[in-house]
Design goal:
With 274 residues, this protein is mainly β. The chain has a domain at 2-192. Helix content is 8%, strand content 50%. It is built from one helix and 20 strands. It has an 18-stranded mixed sheet that branches. Strands 1-7 form a two-stranded parallel sheet. A hairpin with a 3-residue loop joins strand 5 and strand 6. The longest helix has 21 residues, at 2-22. The relative contact order is 0.16. Mean pLDDT is 86; it is low at 14-33.
């Protein structure tokens, strides 16, 4: 855990430093490097009942830490938190409205402060959602190691702003997603879009400083429109069609994934599954 904490804080600092030196904008929380104190490890659990709502808007905001998102509850949410900074005790708020549906907010307070005690720092969120209720999800993630297993969740819209770290978003076999917005900072980011999609999907990606890997299906149509920055773009399994890149199933499948990429300073790899 000590090594992970150090790596998270290093990536967080690198992302900020690079954004200043290169004149780039990286989406990370406002940081003034003011420190907070670590203490005893606290473990808390929280459950949000499903209720009668037919759709929920989910807002997740975490500064620096480990984030896991997956299915695994008959309620709306079952969450486990581990932390040792009292000021970072996670805040959860849920409101239900007959007209607009539910709104669930999970946030880390005081994200404009960090701890320099990397050997003692610990901050982990494990969020398990109901796999049937439709979700519109917005995630703001400053830095850390993230594992987001969203393929079995009923996520219809996903909007993510990522800072630095190693983050995997697995949407493999998601059958409900219609829109995906990604704003990527530093670190390593992997997005898995493989599977048998049932809806057309619009994907917009703003590249950043790190490495981004997109895993794409071969039997569902894919079209990629790339505006290159000064970084590298590697393409495997796609061919040129005009100014775009498409796979062999494009214009023949009933469903199409339309991807628009504004590449940044880092590298982008597009891989079509064999």
């Amino acid at each position: 855990m000590e090594t992970k904490a150090k790596r998270i804080l290093v990536l967080f600092t690198i992302g900020i430093a690079l954004s200043v030196s290169l004149g780039c904008v990286v989406t990370v929380p406002d940081v003034n490097l003011e420190t907070v104190n670590t203490g005893e490890i606290q473990r808390e659990s929280s459950t949000i009942e499903l209720g009668d709502t037919e759709k929920v808007q989910v807002y997740i905001k975490i500064g620096a830490g480990e984030l896991t998102v997956d299915k695994g509850t008959d309620e709306l949410l079952e969450a486990d938190f581990t932390y040792n900074v009292a000021e970072w005790r996670p805040e959860i708020e849920y409101q239900e409205n007959e007209e607009t549906g539910g709104r669930l907010t999970i946030r880390q307070p005081s994200t404009n402060k960090i701890t320099t005690s990397a050997t003692k720092y610990r901050y982990e969120w494990d969020l398990n959602f109901n796999e049937d209720i439709p979700l519109d999800m917005r995630i703001e993630y400053g830095a850390g190691e993230g594992d987001l297993e969203l393929g079995d969740l009923n996520v219809e819209k996903l909007d993510m702003k990522l800072g630095a770290g190693t983050i995997t978003v697995d949407l493999h076999n998601n059958t409900s997603l219609k829109q995906l917005e990604l704003d990527i900072g530093a670190g390593e980011f992997t997005l898995d879009l493989r599977g048998d999609w049932e809806n057309d999907v619009d994907v917009n990606i703003q590249g950043g400083l790190g490495k981004t890997v997109l895993r794409l299906p071969n039997d569902i149509g894919v079209r990629v429109d790339i505006t290159k920055g000064i970084g590298n773009v590697t393409i495997n399994g796609l061919h040129r069609l005009g100014s775009d890149y498409v796979n062999d199933a494009y214009e023949t499948s009933d469903v199409t994934i339309e991807i628009t990429i504004q590449a940044g300073v880092g590298s982008i790899e597009l891989e079509v599954e064999e």
